[in-house]
Amino acid sequence: MTASILLGITIALVAAWGALALWIRAPLSLTARALLALAWLILALAALAALAWPAWRPAGYAFALATLALALWWLRIRPSNNRQWMPEVARQTVGDIDGDLVTLHNVRNFEWRTRTDYTPRWETRRYALSELQSVDVALSYWGRLAIAHALVSFGFGQDRYVVFSVEIRRKEGDNFSEIGGFFKQYELSLIASTEEDSLRVRTNVRGEDSYLYRIHMPLDNARSLLLAYVKRANQLHDKPRFYHTLTGNCTTIVFQMARRIVPGLPLDYRQLASGYLPEYFFDLHVLQGAHSAAQYRKQGRYTDRARALGNAPGFSQTIRQGVPGIDPA
């Protein structure tokens, strides 16, 4: 009896997963995908009936064969770097490391006016590791407190910053779906950009609410983190992978790299619920200049300052005004 219950639960889970996979990824028309997912669920129900009535046993065998066929089809869906990408992810950042010098190709520096009106610019920029001075994490929220997009900005003095952002590499016509992120709907991209591009577009164009946190860490570790980003960008350029809502997103990849640099970095649910990263940083004692995570949030919010500045010069200075742990000078 216990075996039948476990088998029934397994069939139900496979049925649910398979229906979503067919609905989201089957290369068919909307109507055909709906009919195929419905047929799959009907066959799964027949397989469940076979657990109670032996006369239905052929349906159980049919569902097992269908599951095998579905698994083979799923394994054949491979990520690619050759698709009709949206312009903001059309290129991939790659880097060359020559001793102290890091050269980044395809650094995005778009001039955004609206979501659809912008001047595209992809640039080559060079940074000396010996000049690295700071690491900041920007969190940008678009509706739910528990979820934020995390970007890491490396500062090299004189308002020279480069931001690394793990992005969904969307194709033309794609709309973002968190469920789709479980089903190989998007590739993963790691893009380097200017703050005037990737931070300003979120507050001033997309209407998101953004916060900045100065991360205090040894400069050797900061340099290792930067190099880890460059190496990961090169890997994605050479070997594409899919975005995954839980295991391959903006925060999980940050911490996969950071754990290589800071041994023993503890696992925590807030690495997935990225909106709560400030509390996580506070508990790790990498924030300075305030007495609580709430105070860091309040003083680190730069949304209004960014919007008031508009497209005027001085963006990086403006968003850092009053942020705890950053020298006002």
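The record above closes out task 2.4. Task 2.5 opens with a second protein, given below.
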Amino acid sequence: MKSIILASTSEYRQALLKKLGLPFLAVAPNIDETPILQESAQALVMRLSHEKANALTKQYPQHLIIGSDQVCVIDNNIVGKPHTFENAFKQLKAASGQKVTFYTGLCLIDSATNQFNVQCEPFDVYFRPLTDEEIANYLNKDEPYQCAGSFKSEGLGVSLFDKLSGRDPNTLIGLPTILLLEMLSQHGVNPLLD
């Protein structure tokens, strides 16, 4: 089996990949993640997930390299990581009572052959109506300032939702593992058999 590289230093993506029981190395891809003018959310995450994986092919020439990127879309606007309480408050205020869609790009490159597969996995989050007090209290408790959409679904963030809709709940955390397993199987990788 070829060695696996995760082109990410995200603790959330690493935790999800560890659950599959496959050995891997996490490496920062160091790419420019600036969106291109008029680029759709789907195109953005697919481009960035491919660029992240591709950035490591020379350094790891005989590996399977995983790249992933995620954005949140509220009212047709791409929303990134808030970084501050104020920005997170604005994001959650905008999401209150709304359907918010997360798009997660996933790319798997075989660096030995340069073959790659890149796809976009959507996931919808329906927020219940939130009061300003609920938003502020949530932010102070979970501090989701490095998370697109300003919440941690694996934490107290679940208290913000009315319902979730999508193929794989791991997509919401940043790595669509069902899709990843499908991609890996095309390269002979199956955690149930390896």
